[in-house]
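Final report, closing paragraph on structural work. Over the funding period we assembled a curated collection of sequence-structure pairs, and we close with a single example.
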Amino acid sequence: MDSNDIDSKDWWEQRYNVKTEYLYTKEPSPFLVDNLKLLKKGETLDLAMGEGRNAVYLAKHGFNVTGIDFSPTACDRAKALAAEYNVTLDIKNQTLDFFLIPLMKYDTIIISNFHPHQSIFKNLVRGLSVGGTLLIEGYTKDQITHGKGFKPEFKECFGSNEVLKELSGLKIITYNERQMNDGEYRVQCVGVKTSM
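Its predicted structure, as stored:
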């Protein structure tokens, strides 16, 4: 794999190590904050956790969070952030390439600014308990050509209605796919698993 590939650990390690401060700040995603009350407390999975800003926020609000990321630097920063806020996270430094989400293990799964592989997408709903919630947010492909600010790689972005198509087993509580007030093109979704 090319070391310049957005999916490569080397690429992310280089990106994290260029800046000693947190890349995405220590503050949680505003979408997560706005929708916290919709999420089911309990066993929670933060996929591609990054530096832990969302995982720490959830832990502060009583969620039992496992965060997974393939970047050792990101995991180290997540550990430091958890210690700073005096919360406990179960942090796993591992690749998501062959990660299988255990059946009905999680009460909540969150994905922020990460486009999961097809195999992960297929297992998100089955990994939730009944009544479990899923929060996804990320860039749409319009961000590359029309959006203001950060220009993600094509493979990082969601296609039109892609999230809805992949999550057919969920009842969608909230869904946005549009240009936001800051000029970025985003998709944002919260869904709940209503049956087995």
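The chain has one domain: 9-192. Strands lie at 43-47, 64-69, 90-93, 106-112, 128-139, 171-179, 185-192. We thank the funder for supporting this effort.
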